[in-house]
Structure formats: C-alpha cells, structure tokens
Amino acid sequence: MVRLFNVCLYVDVAADRMKLRMPFQVKLFLSLVVFSCLLLVLLGAILFHIIDRQLHHDLGQRARVQASEIALMPGLAQKVQARDIAGIARLIQPLRDKSDASYIVIGDTHELHLYHSESPQRIDLPMIGGDNAEVLAGKTIISIRQGGIGVSLRSKAPILDENNQVIGIVSVGYLTSYIDNINGHRLAQVGLYGLLLLLLLFIFSWMFTRNVKKQMFWLEPKDIALLVRQQKALLEAMYEGVFAINAQKQLISINRAARELLDIHQPENELLGKSLAEVLQIPPSFFTQSGVSENNSQHDQITVLNQRQVIVNRVPIELEPGKESGWVFSFRDKNDINTLSSQLSQVKRYADNLRIMRHEQLNWTATLAGLLQMQRYDDAMHYIQAQSEGAQAVLDFVSTRFTSPALCGLLLGKYVSAREKGVELSFDPACQLTRIPATITETELMSVVGNLLDNAVDATLKAPTPTAPVELYISDRNQELLIEVADQGSGVDDALKPHLFEQGVTSKPSSGYETTGAEHGIGLYLVAGYVRQAGGSIEISDNTPQGTIFSVFIPTPADALTGKNHE
Question: What is the per-residue pLDDT across 487-521, written as a single tens digit (0 to 9) for each?
C-alpha cells in the first residue's frame, strides 16, 4: 500500500513538473485542440439531437400519410367489416412490399389483429400499446409505443364505413431500432467529416501557435514579462531622458528622467497613447532637420524640446528588417555636456601646468648641466641660488600654510603657469588652511580656486598694462573659509555682474574679462554650483585702482570640519 502511494505521488510530481516545463507553444496548441474537441463534441451532440428529432418527425408524418391512405383504400372497409382476413392480406400485401415501414397492421374495433405484415401469428390477438382510444374516436394519431415486435414510432388511422362509423384501425410503424440504424449511418458520415475537420483544426492550431510564438520572438510569456520589467527598471535607472513612439508618432514609453528634464508633471500612464506633439513642444523640423530622415538613425542632433536645448539621439524600432515600427529617442540637456566639457578642460589645465613645470625644470637642469660641463662652478652656484630663492620661498610658503597636498600642487602649478605668461601670482602673507570643510570636497575646492585664478590671469593679460600681480588670499579663520582672488584687469560691467554665474554667460569682449571655459561660459557657473552646494556665497567687487575681486565664503562650523583631505 505504501509503495502504491509512493508511485502515485511520483506520478503526480512528474506531471506537475511537465506542466511547469511545458513550452508555451505546446500549452497553447493543446488548449486549442482540447477546446476544439469539446466544441466539436458539443456541436455533434446538438446536431445529433436535431437530426434525430427531424427524423422522428419525418418518419411520423410518413407513417401518418401511409396509414391515412391505406384506411381510404377501396374495398378495405367491406373486408374489415366482414372480417375477411385473407382478403385483407391480399389487398395490403402489395402495399407492404413497396413501403419502407417496419410493419403494417389492420385491426377491428375490438382491438384484435386482422392483419400483421411481420407477425401473422398475431391474427386475432389483441393489439398492444394502449393508444387506440383516440383512433376509435375517429382521430389519426402518432405515438411511440411498445408493440408486438418492439418499440416503434407509429401512426394509426381509423377505417370508416359508408356512414362514417369507425369499423377498424390501420397502424403503420417504424421500429426505433430501424431509426437508430439510420441515425447511426448518418452519425458515421458526420463523424468522418468531423475527423477531417479535427485534422484541419490540428494543423491550424499548430500553425497558429507557431506564428504566435514567432511574433513573441520564440520567448516564453514569463521571459517576456521579465524583459518588460527589466526594460522598465532600465529606463527608470537611466540618467538620460528616454521616450519611444510608434509609427503613428504616438507616445508608447517615457521614463522618469525625460519627464523631469522636460518639466512634464503628468504620470506615464496618462501620457501613453497621446500624439508626440500633444505631449512635447517640438520644432516643425524635428523629423526633417539636417541629419534626420524617416528611415535612418540620428546621433548628437541639437534641438529644442519644451523650450529646452537638448542633444538628441534617435534609433528606429524594427520588428522586421527594413520595416520601421517606431523610434526610440534619448536626450541630454546641452548644458550638462557643456559642464562636462568644462570639467575636462579644468583637468587638461592641471596637466598643462604640470607640463609647464616639467619644461621649466628641464631648462634649469640643462642650464646647470652646461655650466658644470664648462667647469664654471661659481656661476653654477650663483645660478642655483638665483633660481631657488624665489621658487623655494613659494614652495616653503605654500607647503607650510596649506595642509592639502593636492591644493599645494595646484597653487605651485598656477604660480609657474602665470609666470610663464608674464603674470605674477602673489600670495597674501596671512594665508592659511588647516582643514577643509566637510561640506566641500578637495576636488571641488581645487576647481573653485583654479577657475578663479585662471579668470584673474586671463583678465590681467587683456588689461592695457598686464604687469600687475594677481593676488590670492585663503583663510579658514573665524569658522569660515574665505577665498579672495584680486586682479587689476579691465573689470566686469555692472550690468553683467548679476548674471555672471549663470550657465552660458560670458563677459563682453570689450570688458577685457572672460570666465574660465569661455568657449562655453561655464567656469564661474561651476564655481557658483560648488559654493552653493557647500552652503556658501560669492561676492564680486571692484578692485582699486582697477580690476575685480572675487570673494568666496564657505561656512565651517565645528561639526562640519575635518582634518582629512577630501577627495
């Protein structure tokens, strides 16, 4: 018993595993086949019932007609009245040979057989069925009764004399077995056609399921569901804005970044299905501008969406090779690209400063080596002293006043770079930086100082007398980090000062002052962003006798200080 239970349990588990592992195409095929079979069985049952009812009706009416005609045969009434059994047989037998009925029976008013085509031994025996009362009353009936030779569908008609009195009964019947044979023959024919139809349904179901699987790229439904979830998560995780449209240019997908960048406050489900022109403000040439065609991809195309300048990429959606069913657009704010470009430019300037220092050091080394080769040792000593006095003084000052090695390297590079350009970089004797505020990283602090110094050097070079030094003051006294950069360039116009820290804004060429990254107007924008992020502020004031002073204030409360260099 236990073994039988284990076998049954194993079979059930195996069946469940087959259900779980059964491919979607097979499941769909079997479902269609089972449904088709059930539908065919139901239709067959309904059709059989209709045919059976119609056959009973037709045979009943045929029996009624035959019974009525036999009852009206000339001479039959006289023979029945005279109980001429032999005469009745001679009169009815020719008709029996031509009739398709199962039997023909003649009886008298006492319900006794006078003639029975299939059972002559029943002559003078009572008629069976109990349905003669209405016939003896002069009515013609159709009924299904148990007779002497079996159950039959029969019709009975009265035999009338000259005075229209009932003197006998005519019964014409079809055995139910005969009717069943007819139904069976018809059912066999219908079954043959049903098998052919079922075969066609098998073929159709298999082709249909195969086509469905092909449309699904041969993936299972759970795989498609997983891909949809992955796509949704991927779109939402992307920093770039992404939206997709179909061939009718209706929105079919849009991620959170796209809605935020384009200032769209409606949720995604309210946007889907709408025309792209209803959701976004796009230029008329969005699909026809240079570099864009209806059947090609586009990359790095500058356009305006919702009054925001963006850089757009477009890729077609192809369900079939060469046939586009929509497009996917990804875009970034053009200002973000400018910001990244400026940051890369800042890194490049750091590298340039290092190259300048290396180049100058090589010159010093080459000069010193030449003097030593000429055995002019006194001149070599004087040269070493002359070169090291200024550089060593700056190096000692920077290394003792600033605790950040990276900031020291930046200031030394800026000092050498400015001197190469003919501008003196002067450090205020009161400079000191013992710790960097926790609200700003070391990299961000270097970007702030480096951009301000580059701006000051550029402004000084464009001044009529570019010999005045650029002054730098950095101090973290009084719970505040103060950075001041002063130049004696041409200054900044008063009308431009309120907008100088906006992205893309540069000073007028006539002012002689230009922000770092002037090709993009992004240098002071980065400075302002870092300072604002650190909770600080920037002030612009005029220098005396000319030029500009940039003052940066970053609060350094006791709980926001760190003795470590931040990266």
Answer: 988 888 877 887 787 765 555 344 444 444 434 45
Q: 124: phi > 0 → left, psi -120 to 50 → alpha, else beta; which?
A: left
CA distance 185 to 183: 5
Residue 16 has pLDDT above 80, yes or no: no
β-strand partners of 555: 480
Intra-chain end-to-end CA distance of the chain, in Å: 74
**Residues whose CB is less than 8 angstroms from the CB of residue 231 and which lie 6 or more positions away in sequence, other chains included:** none
Long-range contacts of 157-164 (CB under 8 A, 24+ apart): 157/64, 157/67, 157/68, 157/70, 157/71, 158/71, 159/71, 159/76, 159/77, 159/80, 159/106, 160/71, 160/77, 161/77, 161/81, 162/77, 164/138
Q: If you average pLDDT over every residue of the chain, what do you get? A: 79
**Tens-place pLDDT, residues 464-477:** 776 789 999 999 88
- CA 124/CA 116 separation, integer angstroms: 10
Q: What is the DSSP string of 499-533?
A: GTTSTT----GGGT---SSTTTT-HHHHHHHHHHH
- The answer to whether the Cα torsion of 165, 170, 176, 180 is positive or negative is negative
Give the Cα separation of 483 and 492 in Å (integer): 19
Q: What is the pTM of this model?
A: 0.43
Tell me how far the alpha carbon of residue 88 is from its chain's centroid: 89
Cβ(169)–Cβ(106) under 8 Å?
Answer: yes
